[in-house]
Amino acid sequence: MHLTLYQRDDCHLCDLALDVLAQARAPEFDSVFIDEDEALEQRYGTRVPVLRDEDDGRELEWPFDAERLAGFLRG
Hints:
With 75 residues, the chain is of the alpha+beta class. The protein is built from three helices and four strands, in the order E-H-E-H-E-E-H. The protein has a single domain, classed as Glutaredoxin, CATH 3.40.30.10.
């Protein structure tokens, strides 16, 4: 599983998502900031934070808690 968290700089919701990921002991993930990327801005816009499984394209949009995260990680 190759995970990417799409987020913004200075994003309170992104900080909350990071807390959930840490508390749930999520596997390692990449962080991508969409602020300077027009294509990512169009794709994710106001949906961030979004956790994406790059292997199969599934996405988990905020809001999510540890339970929803665990279900997403199980596939």
